[in-house]
Amino acid sequence: MNFVTQIYLLSQKFLDDYPNDKYPELMNKQGRPYSCLLIDLHEEYFICIPFRSHINHKNAYMFTKSKRSKQTHSGLDYSKVVLIKKSAYFSNKNAIVDQDEYSETMTNIKRIVSEIVTYIDGYTGYVKGNITLHKREFERLYKYSTLKYFHDILGL
User: Fold this and answer.
1) Residue 111 pLDDT more than 80?
2) Is the dihedral of CA 2, 66, 26, 148 positive or negative?
């Protein structure tokens, strides 16, 4: 699988177009940057996985080596993934992430890309009726997922 990755911030335009009252599962907090790992798989959209300080579920890549991760359970949250077509949604400001977490991300990038693709494919397969999951399993994986906001991009 070929891919390109970068670290980005989402722009104010993204925050304006996806307000918290309409998209409550997005991590859209005023004044807080939305730093994410941007993955380009040469599809019709970019995958943006947010870096989070506190994750209390398994739908994520959990950091293990950083000082912060040992205190706060930080990681890349697959359930809060953002799918982007518009380049205007990327900020031109520098994204700043914990250096140890960045290093761990790059060391495990193939695993992270594989896991997010599997997560997205599981959702689309279920919605299209190609994958069967028990309702509780689907809810455990996708109840708080942001993927429901991107059906147009996913072709659902």
Assistant:
1) yes
2) positive
